[in-house]
Amino acid sequence: MCLAVPGQLKKVTMQLDETFRIGNVSFEGIIKEVNLTLVPEAKEGDYVLVHVGAAIGIIDEEEAKRTMAILKEMGEEI
To answer: What is the pTM of this model?
Structure first.
């Protein structure tokens, strides 16, 4: 099953141009480097959906927290 996991964009760490960016995203305190190319409008503090190392969308904080709670209930380790 493919799954996109929500995380909070903490910091843009590299930017080659207006589109290609890399950032640190926190998944409940675990920080991962994520490609932000598909969400050029994402800014620090936003919640993004991440699939295989790439942010594929932006969601609001309430939806991100609800999704993480459901994943925890299912026993998924993030």
So the answer is: 0.88
